[in-house]
Structures are given as C-alpha cells and as structure tokens.
Specification:
Blueprint lengths: L7 H13 L3 E2 L33 E12 L5 H6 L4 E7 L2 E6 L4 E2 L1 E8 L10 H16 L21 E4 L11 E8 L2 H11 L40 H15 L2 E2 L16 E3 L3 H6 L11 H8 L2 E4 L2 E4 L4 E3 L4 E3 L6 E6 L6 E5 H10 L5 H6 L13 E3 L6 E13 L4 H18 L13 H4 L43
Antiparallel strand pairs: 1-5, 2-6, 2-7, 2-8, 3-4, 4-6, 8-18, 9-15, 10-18, 11-12, 13-14, 15-16, 17-18
Helix pairs in contact: 3-10, 4-5
C-alpha cells in the first residue's frame, strides 16, 4: 500500500492521536494463519472470490487506516475476531463496511469497505453501482471521534460497542484517503502486457500503481530465450508463457539466502503489485503444454533468471549468471535462496528454497509449496486454490489475480476507479478471448508432470472448512500509519 500526504489540518489531527494513544501490540490474527498441511488452506477474504458459477467476477477493497475504531481493554483475541466482520448495519447491494486489523494493536481496528467479488459479475454494471453506493456511504457516515452516537457494534464481537477515535474532526469524509485493491480473472497474455507496461514510466493502467510500478518486476521477453534453453526457441514462445515466467522470475529473484535462515513475518506477496490468488500448479497448467524440449523446469528458470531488463533489451544479471547474453552460464546463487517465514502467534517457522518451490510446481500436485508456506503469514498467495473463472462470452477459464498498491483515492473517485479497472479487464477479455494458437509440443512426460487433484477446491470450500478472513494489506499507512509521504491525493 501507499502512504498519502495529508492536508495540514488533517495532519494536526492525526499526529496527536499517534503520539499519545497507548496501545498493546497485537499478535497477528490467528485466523489468518493456515496449517500448511490443512486442506482448508483457503485464507482468502470471504468476499474475494470466486463466483459460484465460475463466471468472471470482480472484487474490490477500499481500506483507510485513518478511520480508526478503538476499544480500550479489548483483548488481542477479541480484536482479531473482529477482522472482516461487518460494522453495524452499513451494507448494501454487493458491498459492506468491515473492520480490519491493520494497526496490529489490541483494541484498535480500521475501516475497510468490501465490494463482493463472489456476487459482482464483470460487465453488468454492478461493480460501478456498488462503488457509487460506498462513496455515498462514506460521506453520509462522516466518521469522526466527535460524531453523535459514536458507538459501533461489530458483528459477533465481545468488545462491542467500539468508538471511532480518528479522525478527530468531522466534515472531512470526502477527503479521507482510501487504498484500493482489485481482484479479477485475467489470462497470462494480459499479465504479460501489464508487466511490460510496468517498466514504462509513467505506467498507464488502472491495474498498476502509478508510483514505482516496476518495483521488483521482471518482464520476461523473447530475448530471455535467445539461448534456446531446454530447446525452446525464442520464436516458439507465446505471450502467455512470457506472462507466466514474468510472475515466477519476479518472485524467485527477490528471494534471499536460507542459510543461515532469517525468518520474516511478512508475506512474499509484497514482492510485486500483481499477486496470484490462484495457486501456481494451476497457473502452470495454463501454459505447460507449450513448453517443448528437455530438462527440468528449475533449470529453465535458472537460465531465465540470468537476464535482467535493460529498456528494450536485456543484459546478464551477474548475481545469477556468468557468460554472455547469447550463452548464459547460471551459477549456484539461486540454489541457496528462498523464503523463511515465521508465524508470530505460534512461533512456527519454515523455510522453502526456490528450487523446491519450482520443483513443486512441476510435480503437478497442488497446492505448490510457496502457497503452502504463505499460509504461515496470511495465506494470500494462491489462497483461492485451483480457482479459475471464464472470460465473458467464452469458455476460456483463466486464473484470478489481485492487483495491489493501486493509487490512493478519496470517496469521490471510487466509482471511476472501479469502472476504469473493470473496463481494463474487459478490454483484455476482448483482446485475448481465445488462447494463443500453437502446435502441441512433444516433451518428456516425466519432466513437467501432470496436475493431480488439489486439496484446494476451485469452488466453495467443503462444509468441514471454515472460510477465514485474511489481511489483504497493511492499509494506507502500513504498520505505522502516522507516517506519510508527499504524494498528491486526487481530488
């Protein structure tokens, strides 16, 4: 998420709140955690998706860490229980106001509006209508600590009622900043277009952040295949394959040493602004029939990691390789990197190397190991399991992605923001209604493997599983929402 500059009067309101309010550190929400062995790994926000009939849906989250609910003395457990629960009766068609635990402090919650990705179908106008309704509700609600009847019940919470402690003055609801995230299905050709666009300044897409859109993104192009790794010639590679490997290489190259392990408490989802909500074995199944030649998937990834973008060209990334662009020579660096994560509640720890992750993708047994590992934090990566949704007016089923770190907006911009994002998705649907045409390649069956049945359902969870409410982000202000950057808020 991005941090936003406040008007002077807002800054003077916020700073005393941050300085003088005494809080107790809040252990991360235990309901966000997922046992990596648990078949009910889906830790997605309950309204994230997918739709019940696998038609294309769109979900949106508007979160503001500047709207704070407080309840002194509320325990960490009861504070965590409020996450994702509806606030009072503030709801309407396809939307509701919920509480979030972005402050990560006992007795403190923030406001998050959710547009229901399970019920909003793309192209029906329902998303725009819901965003307009949320915009009106923000103004009508006008949350502030001095408002009359400042008592708010959160669904099923033992600490009810809660009170709004920030902002401290009214009449500013229209200026409050809200961070935005969009979840929607897209084919990998569209992901390829987006990662390429992210390297252009300024990036011009409602599905990309306008500030630092290229952060950690590797745009895999045909030039990454110039040495014909695994016998794959540059001319044979289609756009969907480029999109898939752009995602994989972007994550892989930002991994860090696992020996000695340094355990992190933050999800790898923060690596780039495009996060797959469908797990990687299912993602790989979208493209793997197009990959000819011999050799392992991991060896292919190591060679692709040899390159880095240099405007419209590529150059050797000497951290990962020697040799030349025409004949790269991977070193052993990637063999020693991965992710080590720690559950701050249970203190459970686990490490995963990039090699083991890629091997798990190729095995065909879902979920992949990075999806499992992320369950230690919040289960967002791949958290919708094998979910796919169909492109409008097509039987082509494509994965779901969350587009994160989108520009901060005020209430007046909500409807346009959602409409623009939805239209961008529709444009990609029209452009890529049919998959790329190619000949089926002969390959060694034991190299890439075939998918097996996943314990992660692509439909509704089984009755024995309880859907969890995951933390989709840290909100506008992150963990320290009293810190701001000089970023102009759209009016």
């Amino acid at each position: 998420m991005y941090l936003f500059a406040l008007a002077m009067k807002q800054a003077t309101i916020l700073v005393p709140f941050v300085v003088f309010l005494s809080v107790t550190a809040l252990p991360s929400d235990p309901r966000r955690r997922a046992d990596p062995k648990d078949p009910c790994l889906n830790e997605a926000p309950t309204l994230d998706g997918p739709t019940s009939d696998n038609s294309a849906g769109i979900g949106v989250e508007f979160e503001s860490t500047f709207v704070v609910f407080s309840k002194p003395g509320c325990s960490s457990a009861d504070t965590n229980q409020a996450k994702g629960r509806q606030v009072d009766d503030r709801k309407g068609d396809n939307w509701q106001l919920t509480a979030d635990t972005s402050p990560e402090a006992a007795g403190m919650l923030t406001a998050e509006y959710i547009l229901n990705g399970k019920t909003i179908k793309i192209g029906t106008g329902a998303a725009s209508a819901a965003a307009a309704a949320v915009s009106s509700d923000v103004i009508a609600w006008n949350p502030n600590s001095g408002m009359p009847n400042n008592q708010w019940n959160i669904e099923g919470n033992n600490c009810n009622p809660w009170a709004i402690s920030a902002p401290r003055m009214g009449n500013g609801a229209g200026d409050l900043p809200w961070s935005t995230q969009v979840t929607a299905p897209l084919p990998f050709e569209a992901i390829n277009d987006l990662v390429a666009a992210a390297l252009v300044t300024p990036a011009n897409s409602p599905l990309l952040p306008s500030i630092n859109p290229s952060r950690n993104i590797v745009s895999v192009t045909h030039k990454f295949f110039q040495s014909s790794p695994n016998g794959i010639s540059p001319d044979s590679v289609k756009a969907d394959v480029l999109g898939f490997f752009s995602l994989v290489i972007s994550y892989a190259k930002k991994a860090t040493s696992t020996s000695p392990p340094i355990y992190m408490t933050r999800s790898p989802k923060v690596t780039i602004s495009i996060m797959p909500r469908t797990e990687f074995v299912t993602l790989y199944a979208q493209v793997k029939s197009t990959l000819p030649g011999t050799g392992t998937l991991y060896n292919l990834v190591k060679i692709l990691a040899c390159y880095r973008n240099d405007e419209d060209d590529v150059e050797i990334d000497q951290l990962f390789c020697g040799g030349t662009v025409a004949a790269p020579e991977p070193n052993s660096y990637m063999d020693g990197i991965g992710w080590c994560l720690e559950d701050t509640d249970t203190k459970d720890q686990d490490c995963l190397t990039v090699e083991d992750w890629i091997t798990s993708i190729a095995s065909g047994s879902s979920p992949d190991k990075l999806t499992k590992l992320d369950g230690l934090i919040d289960g967002q990566i791949g958290g919708l399991g094998t979910a796919l949704e169909n492109i409008i007016d097509s039987t082509r089923a494509v994965p779901l992605f969350e587009f994160r770190n989108l520009d901060g907006i005020n209430a007046g911009k909500m409807q346009d923001t959602v409409s623009n994002a939805e239209q961008a998705v529709i444009t990609y649907f029209d452009k890529y209604k049919a998959p790329p045409q190619r000949k089926m390649a002969k390959r060694q069956d034991d190299v890439y493997g075939c998918p097996t049945k996943s314990p992660l359902s692509s439909t509704m969870p089984t009755p024995s599983c309880t859907l969890q409410n995951a933390d989709p982000d840290q909100g506008i202000g992150g963990r320290g929402y009293g810190i701001v950057e000089e970023v102009e808020l759209s009016s």
